[in-house]
Amino acid sequence: MSDQPSQTADLRPASDVSAITGWLGLGALTIYVMICHFWPEIVVTFGLPSRVERLTGPNAALLGLVITAAPMVLWSVLVEKVHRRPSTGIDWDNPRPLSDVIDVSITKLAGLWATWALIALFYWLGRWYWEGPYLFAMQVLTTLAVPLFVLSIPYVLWLDRYLIQPRDGAWHMGAMLVGREAWEPDQVWHHLRAWAVKGFFTAFMLMIVPGGFQNLVAPDWSEFFLSPPGIAILLITLMFVIDEQIGTVGYVLTMKPLDAHIRSANPFLAGWLAALLCYPPFQVMSPQDRPLFYLSGVPGDDNWFHVFAGYPTILWVWAGLLVFLTGVYAWATVAFGIRFSNLTYRGVLTNGPYAFTRHPAYLSKNLFWWCASMPFLVQTGSTTDAVRNAFFLACVSAIYFWRAKTEEKHLLGEDPKYREYYHWMERNALITRTFHRLGQKLRPRRPEPAALPAE
User: Fold this and answer.
1) Same domain for 322 and 429
2) What is the pTM of this model?
3) 118 and 205 both lie in a single domain
4) What is the pLDDT of residues 292-334, one digit of tens each?
5) 188 vs 171: CA distance, rounded Å
6) Which of 180-204 are b and which e, b meaning 16 or more Cβ less than 10 Å from the residue's Cβ?
């Protein structure tokens, strides 16, 4: 008799992103945060010629992006050799002469620069980009504008020699503007959608990075260890900084040689609407003047330690729960490595928390909001406020459910591998399988058609 199993093992599809990539970035970021926080002690101990103060400024936060990205890029290229994957569309072994691609490259550069000009116009018109925290993002991008313009020339000329199909979306954009060669509207729209994602979210991420970094590094950490809420606040802040730093790296490193390029951006209007409703200036759930504000009569996301102030044991348990939820949220970003991005397809991710549910970040984030803010327990004692808060937070959760479904619709249409992962999760993943089976039980059964009479 054969020793082989009677059925083929139902193996999880392989991930396009290795688990170790993100963990290397996390390790580098953690060491860097420790250095920045304990910089005064380091200066005194080693007698360094530096001011005795913590490194909390925006430049320190930006340097954190470089330090976080470096080990992930080195591992990806030197160990995993992602630049050799067929999905990059690059053939390193058969370069073309520069004379063969120069005309294509010039057309592509025209399309690329025109795209950047459109993004710059959007920034210029959006007055919210020139006030508050967004102003820092504009200063960074303005400083980088000329270097990026100059560096794009050798980069495009170099890469086009190796691309199997150099006439990509940027080329079609340029050909449309030049008007002398055939161009495809679908390619232009694909190109514009991809750069719209990168332009919108890169500015947002650069806006939030300095504030989060300062909130983590600047305070005296010893003061947080005096109570369960203090410990939770410190660790939760750390988790959000991890998410911000690695997420920003993902938006910046959308490059084909790293196999981290945007293969497609969500083509569905509903997907864009669901996503943009969650980010400024379109955000609908905060601050107080937005339609889905759910914290009326509630101090904020720290309402939990006001509610449980007189119950030390419950405080510890609840603090652990909130740290766990934000830990899952940060883990979901770390798992992406250098490929994090909204509204895009950049490969299939099947490991880490994505082995338990297809949307760990959305699930953990919404559970955190419910458990931290407890919107139904208001200090005013108003039943109306409690009902309204719960209703509006339920609307917020519904938007994230909508986001998840629009993302699935996009990815299911892009790659058979994602479809394989999608159905594997329904059969095997603890959380997804549970919800899938529950949905099947609640879904009304269609009546079977009556049998035709025999002749």
Assistant:
1) yes
2) 0.93
3) yes
4) 999 999 988 999 999 999 899 999 999 999 999 999 999 999 9
5) 9
6) eeebeeebbebbbbbbbbbbbbbbb
